[in-house]
Amino acid sequence: MSSSASAADTVPAAADRGALATARRVVVKVGSSSLTSIKGGISEESLTGLADALAAKRNSGTEIILVSSGAIAAGLAPLGLAKRPRDLATQQAAASVGQGLLMARYTQAFGAHGVTVSQVLLTAEDLMRRSQHTNAFRALDRLLNLGVVPVVNENDTVATHEIRFGDNDRLAALVAHLVRADALVLLSDVDCLYDGPPAQGARRIPVVGGPHDLEGVSIGRTGKAGVGTGGMVTKVEAASMAAGSGIHALVTSTPNAAAALNGEDVGTWFTINGSRKPVRLLWLAHVASVQGRLVLDDGAVRAVRHHRTSLLPAGISAVHGAFEAGDAVEIAGADGTVVARGLVNYSSEELPRMLGRSTRDLGEELGTGYDREVVHVDDLVLV
Ligand SMILES: Nc1ncnc2c1ncn2[C@@H]1O[C@H](COP(=O)(O)OP(=O)(O)O)[C@@H](O)[C@H]1O
Ligand SMILES: N[C@@H](CCC(=O)OP(=O)(O)O)C(=O)O
């Protein structure tokens, strides 16, 4: 963990954490592993402790959105299931049972402090398509103005394999972006990011200033078998996604929630290292699963990578995969190196006859609509 150790030596551990104490709007995400146990369903102590901390912060004037996992885990015991099911339909059924139970507990626990909660179930599409995410923003913003704590989860019961986030860490980062939060707090069953698997005498990483601080750090999957999904990997991705787009991020344990929100020196702090980007592009860079690949000639690679231009049919030499207009695709050079990801304007059926041709020719021959770029520069992120 050489680079992390040097970051810890030069940056005070409490660096910037005060931003949490004064934040106007915070997204807090809590994982299944700290809310539930496979045998006992919802953990009353953990849920109540979390609600106490968040309600106190809300009552002191900070707007809070809670992204809560745990629906599937909470639904297992009532359905007589001993472990998290593998098939999607049973997971959907468990989520449908558990989500109601979770909301009932949150309503009670926050209600004890005079705080109203609401349920907001989102699919990946709601955050990707502009019309839908504008709608989602409006609803969440209004709820926050009304003093409510919205409790967000993925809409597991209707989300399919293709469009599923699967973990709520990256969903929380996108929600933080959507509502223009000042900070994102990721709560789990581990108190910080360690430089290796926590059980083996690993050391705390207090501050991550950028990707260089993660070099050589061994980041693993979930700790409690069968409960959490993403593990530390998706938390680091989510925190990096937030910090890279102008939002402070902190990873710590659920019992540390109150201390974290007071700006105390707990957990791992991700320092802001980039500016805000459209939600669509964050999605494309970090979450979207690609449906195909466009192979470019060298000139087109240079144009996309160095001159930041839109991708035209003339520079494409091959198309792989089956995709529809609007899907995410990889954009690669002739040697197979992926240089970008983009939202494509044509389907994989339409594209082959367009390759290598000018947009003008295509417009004249095939009609207007075929004179557009294949990927617009605004729908393209370099990787
Ligand atoms: N380098 C690391 N530092 C901290 N925790 C790690 C690391 N690598 C793997 N983990 C594991 O990640 C787990 C947290 O992820 P997960 O179980 O998915 O939690 P949640 O349900 O809260 O999202 C921890 O229990 C821990 O064992
Ligand atoms: N939406 C799912 C959460 C997925 C999940 O387990 O996430 P996490 O525990 O945060 O790794 C649920 O409510 O069960």
Automatic annotation (TrEMBL):
It is an enzyme of class 2 (transferase). GO terms for cellular component: cytosol. Keywords: Amino-acid biosynthesis, ATP-binding, Cytoplasm, Kinase, Nucleotide-binding, Proline biosynthesis, Transferase. Transmembrane segments: none annotated. ATP binds at residues 29, 188-189, 229-235. CDD domains: AAK_G5K_ProB, PUA_G5K. GO terms for biological process: L-proline biosynthetic process. It is found in: Cytoplasm. GO terms for molecular function: ATP binding; glutamate 5-kinase activity; RNA binding. Its EC number is 2.7.2.11. It holds the Pfam family AA_kinase. The keyword Protein biosynthesis does not apply. It catalyses: L-glutamate + ATP = L-glutamyl 5-phosphate + ADP. Catalyzes the transfer of a phosphate group to glutamate to form L-glutamate 5-phosphate. It comes from Pseudarthrobacter enclensis. Pathway: Amino-acid biosynthesis; L-proline biosynthesis; L-glutamate 5-semialdehyde from L-glutamate: step 1/2. Substrate binds at residues 69, 156, 168. This is Glutamate 5-kinase. Belongs to the glutamate 5-kinase family. Residues 292-375 form the PUA domain.
